[in-house]
Structure formats: structure tokens, C-alpha cells
Amino acid sequence: MGGAAVAAIRLHQALLDQGVDSSMLFLEQKNIGIPGFYSVQDTKKKQLNYFIRKIISVWNRIIRMKTRSAENEKKIAGRNVNSGMFSLDPSDYDLSENILCKEADVIHLHWCSRFFDFKSFQSLRKPIVWTLHDMNPFTGGCHFSNACYKFESECRNCPQLAGAKDPDIAWMDQKYKKKYLEDVSLIPVAPSYWMKSCSERSALFGSFRNYCIPNSVNTDVFKPLNKAFCREVLNWPVNKTILLFVSEEVNNPRKGFDLLVEAHALINIPDMLICVIGITGITAKVIPGINYQGKINDEKLMAVAYSAVDALVIPSREDNLPNTMLESLACGTPVIAFKTGGIPEVITNGVNGILSEDLTSMSLAESISWFYENSGLFSENEIRNDAVKRFSPQGQAYYYTKLYKDLLN
User: Fold this and answer.
1) Is-cis flag, bond preceding 90, omega within 30?
2) Residue 129 φ/ψ, nearest 5 degrees
3) How far apart are CA 306 and CA 308, in angstroms?
4) How does pLDDT run across 221-243, given as a tens digit for each residue?
5) 3-state DSSP call for residue 409?
6) Phi, psi angle pair for 242, to nearest 5°
7) Which of 208, 242, 244, 285 has its CA at a distance of 20 to 30 angstroms from the CA of residue 88?
């Protein structure tokens, strides 16, 4: 499950805890164990028995393979996939016909690429809040622009579509979205001021009122634990300085693991270990001093990992407000990162982490070396207390609930 889904679920739980009647609609069935979760098929075919629902689900998948989803993939075929994720409208789904959307007072969108069709805006006709987990809602298809600013005007000749049959497909997608944004009651909400600024400058969302409400972290789960005990649980050495890297997909170029590997080679500190959590695939290289742990889905075990290490490293080339950063800080563990996206809004040099000056492996190596020599300057309690104050579920739920009420009034 990606970071956007995790953030959305945490908000849903926080709203439920505050007595808000909240429901979540997923494209596919999710076994979350929290009330109020529905899949499209759950809501669309409630009256049918299990076996008929399964037949319809399989049939719908076959039909979609021949329709818009397949057509969109054909349009961007040939591009360099290392450019990052790219998602086009239109979608195979019309959420305006969904019973949950019809009954809702406010519709709150999260990460819904290939699920939400902008055309639905014209038939929903009710207040809509959209949390911007990435840039895709206001671009011509990219999820992070990689320092391209064409989304501010026209997404012509998209650099991320180099090699595709028609790089101007992004511009067509941008025009499609804009067509259905007229007279829409939409409030874009960004977890970081960096993302809010991008949205405000965009040709699609710049005319709307944009807000910033940070994501939250469950501070009852993510909290400081005994370091020696945590290392024993994970079978990690007790006599080394351990850094942690976490990503859903380790080799995602945007997450910058390659920069960390290069920095590690430059440092050459024998008693330092880098532990890596995430999906590595078949391309993971065996490198002395780098320990691959695979993916961890359990939040309590992740809290153990954050507490076991000396620092979390986030070498992202672009990022919004990473959940991993909030989780680490809630555990009292400092963060070493680049000055990208919303990260500098949270990390203060020498207080709760270190920000590398330049987006290079050399600069990252210098930051890691400085941390190695000065790790005793960081206070676990101060880092934890600041994170609890700034990223509590109660605070996030309060600001979103206030926004919902303002829209309804």
C-alpha cells in the first residue's frame, strides 16, 4: 500500500475518532480492519450474492482492458519508464453514479489516478476537497514534474513523454481536465506548503482556494522504544551506527536510493550500516554495509525499525511530505534529507535532522559524516514532542472538519 493510501486511511480513522460520519471508497477491496471501507463492487452490487459479484468483477476487468485504460497506456507507450509514473484521464469509472458519492455531504478525494474522471465533476455538484498527495491532479499526467513548470501554462511537448508516440498527449489531458473544472466547488488541500505553491501556480488549480493541512501520524504506535531491544528484535548489530532507508519501491529513481549508495561509497565508515526496507526486485546489488530487509507492512514493526536506528535517510529528488519522515520523528529519530519538496518545512538543521545543501551524493555524504560525528547533539524527547505537536491525528481531523463545515455553510 502506497504512502497516499496510508495517509488517507489515517485521516479516515482520525475523523471517525472525532465522531465524523466518514466512509472510504477504494477501487479494489482492501482488508483494513477499520469501519467504513468499501470497494466499487461493494457499493455497486450490494444486492447481488458473492458469486454473481465475482463474475461481474471479472467481466468489468475484461471490458476495461479494451477501453480507456488500455487506450491511455497505448498513448504513452515508448516513453522512458524511469521518468516516473504517468496517468491520463479519462477513467473507466463515473463516481457520480456511486451510492456513497450520492449520499455524501462532502466528497474528499485522495490519490485516485485512473479511478476518478474529471468529467464526474459536472454531475457530482457538491463540495469537493482534494488532498494533493502528488502533482497529477493539476498536471497533464505526471505525478511529479521533475523541475518542469509547463503545468503552470501548457503541458506541450512533455519531457516525461520523450519516446512516446505523441508527447502532446499531456497537453490534451490538461485541456480535458480544464474543460470539466468550470463552476466546480473544489478545494485543493496540500500536505505541504511546497505542494500548495505548485497547485496555486498551476493552470488547472490556480483559480481555486488552496489550503495546507499536513498529514498525521499515529503517535500511539510510532513512539520511541528501547534501541537495544529493537535491534535485538530485528537481529541488527548493537555496536554500529545504523541508518535507515524506506521506500515502497527501493529502486524508484525519485526516491534517490542510488544517491545514497554513492554517498555510502564516498563515506567508507566501517562501523556504519545502512538498512533498507522496501521492495527491491531482482535488481538489488549486494553491497557491503547495506542490508536489505524487504517490505514491512506492520506499523508496529516499522516503529521498532525507526527506534532501532540512529537516523532515517530520505535522499528523494522530489517529495511532498513523506510519511516516513513523520513516522521517524514521532519515534524520536532524526532525519537526514535533501532540501526538496515539503521536507525543509519540517526538518531543522541540528534540531531534528540535517538538510544537505545540494542534491548530490557528495553533499549527502558530507551530511551523513557530520551526523556520524555529532549524533549525540540530537534529543530524542525534543524530536518526539515536536512531531506530536505538529502531526497529531486530532489536529489534522480538526482542521479538515472545520473545512468541511465551512464548505457546507
Assistant:
1) yes
2) -105, 135
3) 5
4) 999 999 999 999 999 999 999 99
5) coil
6) -115, 130
7) 208
